[in-house]
Amino acid sequence: MMKSMTGYGTAEGSVGKGLVFIEIKSVNHRFCEISVKNPPKMGVLEPKITKYLENKYMRGKFDVFIKEIGSLFGGVEINVDVELAKRYQKALKALSKELKEPVGNNILQYIDVDRFVTLREKIGNYEQFWIQIKKLLGIACKQVDKMRMQEGAFIKNDQKKRIEKIQKLISKIRAGAKHSLVKNEDRVRKKMNGVGQLDEQRLITEVALIGGRQDITEEVVRLESHIKQYNTLLASKGSVGRKLDFLLQEVNREINTIGSKASDATISRLVVECKSELERLREQVQNIE
After folding, report:
1. Residue 171, pLDDT above cutoff 50
2. Which of 66, 78, 89, 112, by CA, is between 20 and 30 Å from 132?
3. Structural domains in the chain plus CATH codes
4. What secondary structure does DSSP assign to 212-280, as a single string?
């Protein structure tokens, strides 16, 4: 099934003793480029996340955001240095006695609590949570895939319509080329009638020379072949974006050659219409995986 490279997905779930939130955004890119933004302490997981996505996708630029909601290791530890608090209290009493000034029993009136109370976040190795985090990545990727497939189906349907239109234009170009050849023969015949006795051999030679310069048979045949291959790719599975882009470049090359060879106004107009449709196809193909 054809996929676009535009997708979005999120997931949130319990991991360890906390929660993890994951957000994935993907847009078009020539290759597979992955950017992971996570808390520095979770940096050990970045290579695993990158490899997971590289194995899953062929093309696209992916931005992955990971947020730890609550410590996965169980919050913070509170450490109270009771002995230090007692020493502060004893020192205050000694000072009160020396200065003969009363001092309350609450030492927090005089000393900041962070002098003897410390908070320390529990730490550990985040790799132990990889299996749980990988499941959340899978949930987010399913949402990304769903959006990519939906847009891919829409692009595919539109591509079929435009390719069908180009096929009809090519058929008209083929018919127009035959008609142009007949007109050239009539024009040469009239010209030669005006200068004396008509020489059939010379007429054939003149028409052949003009036809050789304006003959677009080979270009039309190659065009039809490229279009056939394009339709085959549209019906195939897997990553086809680069192949479609290459074929469109070849189609554009043949169309340009026809435009430079043709001296017929009708064919020139048909070439312009073909190039207009090709441009729309190329814009869409840039977003196909």
Report:
1. yes
2. 78
3. 7-73+124-147 (3.30.230), 76-121 (no CATH), 151-285 (no CATH)
4. HHH--HHHHHHHHHHHHHHHHHHTS-S--HHHHHHHHHHHHHHHHHHHHH---HHHHHHHHHHHHHHHH
